[in-house]
Design brief:
This protein has 15 helices and 12 strands. By secondary structure, the protein is an alpha/beta fold. The strands form 3 sheets. It has an 8-stranded parallel beta barrel with strand order 1-2-3-4-5-6-9-10. A two-stranded antiparallel sheet has the order 7-8. Helix 6 packs parallel to helix 7 (179-196) and helix 14 runs parallel beside helix 15 (366-373).
Length: 375
Amino acid sequence: MKRIVYSLAVLMMLVLTACTTKSEQNQEVNDFSIHRGTNLSHWLSQSEERGEARQMHIQEDDFARLDSLGFDFVRIPIDEVQFWDEEGNKLPEAWNLLTFALDQCAKHHLRAIVDLHIIRSHYFNAVNEGAGNANTLFTSEESQQQLINMWYELSDALKGYSNDSVAYEFMNEPVAEDHEQWNQLIVKVHKALREREPQRTLVIGSNLWQGYETMKYLKVPEGDKNIVLSFHYYNPMILTHYGAWWTPIGRYTGQVNYPGVLVSKEDYEAAPDTLKPLLEPYLTQVWDVNKIREDFKDAIKVAKKYDLQLFCGEWGVYEPVDRELAYKWTKDMLSVFNEFNIAWTTWCYDADFGFWDQQKNDFKDKPLVDLLTGK
């Protein structure tokens, strides 16, 4: 009797394995092929522009320019407050601009990631701005359902775009107290979107500002090959955010070196006492291409585990940063991206980390563009 039961169990396992293998073999994988891109930031996200100013901000020539420069995709951050009022009613202008952008991407050979950047129940920088209690997403079922409802409406509007050309990033830079809170929300949103759009490419990032450090805690639905894994990288912050008013490290005014040890002992001693705790790591740690490669290790490992495309959705250097330092760091970043086939979008196209000046209709930093595009 035991032998019969054992034989039946083995038979069932073989059948299940065969079914799984067949399912995987028959799974349709999108041709959402991405390599180099940029963020169209501070347009449909993090901007007070409305009406004509917003309509004129990004136009067809911007998409044509990116195509001609050799970029193959864009990430389009969008905010809840621009697309829905407080009662949940759609605000038509932003919706029209988003579909305009996607239509222009199709016309000018650019793929697109629609990134839900900031929502009313979750702002990635709330903790740093003393408003951490405003984030209810990970503690409220109602807030989580509202996130899903927003994606239902976005899906209704965008599902006609090809799965090979448009992807959804259903939330930017999650900041959950526990990594499992984010993993559980991933399951909910993934299930809801898959019921509506079984094939759409979904971009999923790691907890705590999409940090490379937390990629090892990320759990994504098994067997779904139409997922892109995302992380962000701005390290070392003392270099990339030199002079940035919104972060404490931006108040440092001494010299920065790269590659090598970033801060000399003399510059450390001359710095205000309030900054010294932030500067201490930069006194001894060597920053170069090898450090970047080491930082990316966990993200690369997770992508290999799931056999998925890895994508750095944000990286870049603030405009006041010494350009020679910026170029050296950019070269090292590109070297590691190329080595491990990591797709990327710079932060950003035309805002304070950008390379294009809309007012002058000219490049802010042509050498940077040449680096990015391999010219």
